[in-house]
Amino acid sequence: MGAPELHVLSEAPYNAEPPSLAELVQHPITPLHLIYARNHCTFLPRHTFKSPAALSNSACFLSSPFYIAIPAIKSLKSGAATYAVKIDGELQCLEEAKVVTYQDILLRFPRKEVVAALVCAGNRRATMADRTGKEVKGIKWGDGAACNVRWAGAPLRQVLLSAGVPDGDRDSYEGFHVCFASYVAPCEDDKYYGGSIPLADAMDEKQDALLAYEMNGEPLTPDHGFPLRIVVPGTYGMRWVKWVDRITISREESPNFYQQKDYKILPDTVTSREIAESQGWWSRVPSMQHLACNSVVADVCRLPSPRPNEVKLKVMGYAYSHWPISRVEISVDSGRTWEDAYISYQEGQWSWTLWEAELEFTIDEEAERAGVISVDEESSGRLKRNMVVFSRAVDSFGNEQKLSHQWNLRGVGYSGPGERSIEV
User: Fold this and answer.
1) What is the mean pLDDT of residues 8-19?
2) What string of DSSP letters covers 361-376?
């Protein structure tokens, strides 16, 4: 099957998601052509690269025909061989900034692989708008702004230790943040893109944060952050800064627009940016970090059954959280009763979870009374029978996906039940 085009939601900046959720969940590890694109900078991606792995010298990648020029991104004049990340901050050891190059990352640090789900904070924003009946500010993502990738790179902890950040326990890093910035590309709302996470998370070996240079066994493609990007498993994707060229240790979160005045779940009484500004809500609400427990019904298909009034369905979907998913349940009666789905894939601490289930029931008056089936009469007089399959996930920490979800202005963090309808 040829690589389909992503479904484009905005051209500039380029933002797009896979057109078929049914195809998306066929792959435990998401292939490149199905990985959603999220950008705050204006550039023109191309999904017709030949494999960059074919290049014997990755230092030539940027000047090779595989690299597509990106007009709004500053030229990486030095090429990958001398691409550098500046490390500075409010620690005595960083009074003089340190510099680590792309080649340093490749040669001086151990290579670590982590399978982790990358999820946009706006995933399912269109569903939030539909279910609440209220407009949201932002790109109307469906359920496809999520993927699962085998990342590889240098452990961020090791890079920071080499720059002089002292080794210690989580308490010793209390009150400090690690700020990531990319000055490679100007953005819609700021002069650069930035975000931050607690320094304790960056220095915790179990959190598996990376300064990554590979995805699915090949060098990062330009539109996914080549030559270096941040990977923060279990955290929303806006903190996974692409084209990172500066890392700063600070007593404050990143001052960047996308940390301070975006990606926050505002109260439902805040109905405009003007209200958020005038009432100081941006500084009153915490920045989003960890993934909420969530699941999506990606596909419902009817299986052969011996009698016309007997229905067999196969249901498939995905789930994710900051913690491993322990259970996914499905319901066909609007959440009155639930039954367990089968978890077909989960890998390590940070991957998404793929799940599936088969359902059997009879189309009769009892099914209608129970709310399993709704019957509508079309203008032609034909009776149309529909049913909705719902999903909810529970993670290993005990977090459970919500059965309702409050509206927020930016439409971020939606984690209402997964749902998909089918005519039966």
Assistant:
1) 94
2) EE-SHHHHHTTS-EEE
Q: Which two structure tokens, joined as six digits, stand for 327?
A: 């259970």
Gap between the Cα atoms of 158 and 154, Å rounded: 7
Coil/strand/helix, residue 198? strand
pLDDT at position 45 over 70: no
Question: Would you say 367 and 373 are in contact if contact means Cβ atoms under 8 Å apart?
Answer: yes
Quote the CA–CA distance of 9 and 336 in Å, as a whole number.
35
Which pLDDT score, from 0 to 100, does residue 172 have?
95
- Rounded distance, CA 373 to CA 332, Å? 8
Rg of the chain over CA atoms, in angstroms? 23
By CB atoms closer than 10 A (0-12, 13-18, 19+), residue 162 is: middle
In this prediction, residue 72 has a pLDDT band, given cuts at 50, 70 and 90, of very low
DSSP 304-344: P-SSTTEEEEEEEEEEE-SS-EEEEEEESSTTSS-EEPEEE
Neighbours of 163 (CB within 10 A): 21
SS3 193: strand
